[in-house]
Specification:
The structure holds two protein chains of two kinds. By secondary structure, chain A is an all-alpha fold. Chain A has seven helices and no strands. In chain B, 81% of the residues lie in helices and 0% in strands. Classes of the chains: A mainly alpha, B mainly alpha. Chain B: Its main location: membrane.
Amino acid sequence: MSETRVTAIDALPGEFMMWVLIMSELAVFGAGLIVFSAVRLTDLSGFADAQAQLHTVGAGVNTVVLVTSGWLAARAVGLAEKGRVRATRVSLGGAAALGVVFLWIKGAEYADKAAAGINFETHSFFTFYYLLTGFHAAHVIAGLVIFALVAWKCQPRLVETGAQFWHMVDLVWLLLFPVLYLVGRV
Amino acid sequence: MDVTRAWVTLMALSALATALAVFGQGATWAVLAILVAAWIKARVVLRAYLGLAGAPDWSRGFSLVLGLFMLAIMGLSAFT
């Protein structure tokens, strides 16, 4: 008589290796935000002055863009499970398009900083800012490539894995945005 | 929570955080409220979008680590 053992790993939705990636990415960004918050205490006025140079409205719009993109990615998973290939691709395409909008707004902010002579070494605030948001933007670009691949194959398991990666990118931004852009300003 | 209700919740919490940033007048309570909103949003993404609502043990583990992280950030941010 065969016996099926359900392990703790089996209880996780989606691909286990994607969860390993999600946990490691969250640990990296989490450590970065804690160090940033600790270093800020050594120069509150300098960090506040540097933070005032950021585009809070643009970053706020990007929050809406990424959250909506995550919703489309989550919908794509349900559509793929129902075998609705075209609708799945449309949903993934919408999520990817909003990812491009996110990068465009982020690129405009970087260009504005560069035009103002602000770079990596201007202040330690900007060192953290470029490291954390640049690393995050690299993940957005990776997510777009993943979306293209899973939309091409359009298999439910692959769509779920791609969406998992995108939700991790979404989650990281939801934590980055208030710490980098809002705390210290309000 | 289905994914559309999760999206509505995330948008509402984002609007709340923006309002707190605009009208908070530099108060410590406003900083902490913004971070609490981020905390709730992170939980919504984990449970509704990443599907941890269907894996209660993992959900509790993630919630514990997320809670410790947010408390650390709130502690460090309360002095800004």
